[in-house]
Each structure stands twice: as C-alpha cells, then as structure tokens.
Amino acid sequence: MIIAIDGPSGSGKSTVAKELAKRLGFACLDTGAMYRAVTYRGLQMGFDLASIADLDAPEAPQDVREALVKVANDEPIAFEYDEFGQPIKVEIGGQDVTRQIRTKEVDSTVSVVSACSDIRTALVAQQRVIGAASDTIIEGRDIGTVVFPNAELKVFLTASAEARAHRRVLQNAERGVGDTDEQATLELMKYRDKYDSSRANSPLSQAEDAILVDSTDMTFEEVVERIIELAQERM
Ligand code: DC
Q1: Which residues pair with 91 in a beta bridge?
Q2: 180, HSE (Cβ side, Cα atoms, 13 Å)
Q3: Domains by residue range for the chain, with CATH
Q4: Which pLDDT tens digit goes with each residue over 192-218?
Q5: Minimal CA–CA distance to 9: which of 38, 36, 28?
Q6: How far, in Å, CA of 110 to CA of 98, rounded?
Q7: How close is the Cα of 140 to the center of ligand 1, in Å?
Q8: pTM higher than 0.85
Q9: Given ligand 1 and candidates 28, 31, 90, which is best to mutate, with the most ligand atoms within 8 Å of its CB?
C-alpha cells in the first residue's frame, strides 16, 4: 500500500509521515531530502546556485545543469532507518549528508534544483523503486499527481504560511541546524510556495482524488489520527 502525502513546506509532512510509519509499520520516504541532497552536492562542487533562476532556461549555465543531472543519475540516494523505522541518515553517493541538507544555503537554492526536468526524472525513478519495495508512506509535492498516481490513499496536508513558518523554526531549533528567524523563514516559505506551485514541471498541486487536511488548527495527534482513520478505511 502506498500512502502519498503532499503539501507545501512546513506543513508537517515529515513529522506526520514518520509517526504514521511507526504506528502502521510502514516504511517512509522523504522525497524532499532527495532534492536537497542533489542541491547540497551542487553547492559542494562550488556552483553558485543562488545566482540561477531557472536551470531549464537556455541561458542557464549548461555545465552546472549537466553536473547536477549527472549527480541525480549516478549518485544513488540511500536512507538508513532505526529499529522503529525512523529515518536517521541520508546518504548520496555514499556520503553522509544528513545535516548538510538542512542548512540555510540548501533551503534557499533547492527550489531551483527541484524545478529542473531531468533531475526530477532521475529522482522520480528512484522514488518509484523505493516505494514499490514495501508498504510506504511517501511525502513530497507530486507524489499523488506524478510519482504514484495510483496510490491507495492521497492526502494533501496544508496549514497557513504563518503556522508553517512557526513550526519550521521550532524544528530547526530542535535539530540545531537551519534558520531560526521566524520572519525570514516566513518570507522564504512564501517564496518557495510560489516557486514550487508555479513551476512548469510537476508543480505542487492537490491531486483530484486527494483528501485535504488543513492542520492550522489541529494538533499533531489529531492529524495523525485522521490519516490513520483514512488509511484503515482503505486497507
Ligand atoms: O519538503 P522539503 O522542504 O524538504 O522539500 C525541499 C524542496 O524540494 C522544495 O522546494 C520542493 C522540492 N520537492 C519537490 O519538488 N518534489 C518533491 N516530491 C519533494 C520536494
């Protein structure tokens, strides 16, 4: 069974997906971490990703585009899980990037990398292989629309931008990595919402058959229980 959870950044997808995986005994897959890992490799190779508006545009530096597409195709992304099925490590090409993918630099450049058509094609192929291996909760932006359009359950999880920025800042403080300035986080979040929703390739959008869960005024427990209820109806 595939449970697809899509929604904007900071809607709580990752934390909810991890808790659902634990309670339902499913694997979980954070596809955003995969786009982040490729972005981190680009920064590590010394590319000035912040100066690029659109990697698919003819004026985009072709050497950067080619190098990133090569990373997405040739450097497999692997997740390591603890005994409760909770993800504890992200690797790309054998390199541990668990913390590196959560920095401010990655936050502010990942939208451009994830809008690139050939990078998406490469990572979607990896996601389909991972998801097909077992019962999986997959979270991202295009899971219900593109990656697994036949998922048994599709949830579109959202919340107001203010609530999402607040939660993201708390999560960054807890992890000890990433921005903890709430106003700056809110602005970046609004920018990313707009970029992710308006891009040409697999924009963030609610699948027709997805169930909308607006968590603005819901507790974490209420969100988890609601999705478990929906999953049980379909099992
Ligand atoms: O969920 P996140 O903030 O870690 O995602 C990082 C970026 O990757 C975000 O800008 C949107 C993009 N993304 C995507 O385009 N498709 C996915 N399936 C997951 C994430």
Answers
A1: 78, 96
A2: 8
A3: 2-234 (3.40.50.300)
A4: 899 889 999 889 999 999 999 999 999
A5: 36
A6: 15
A7: 6
A8: yes
A9: 31
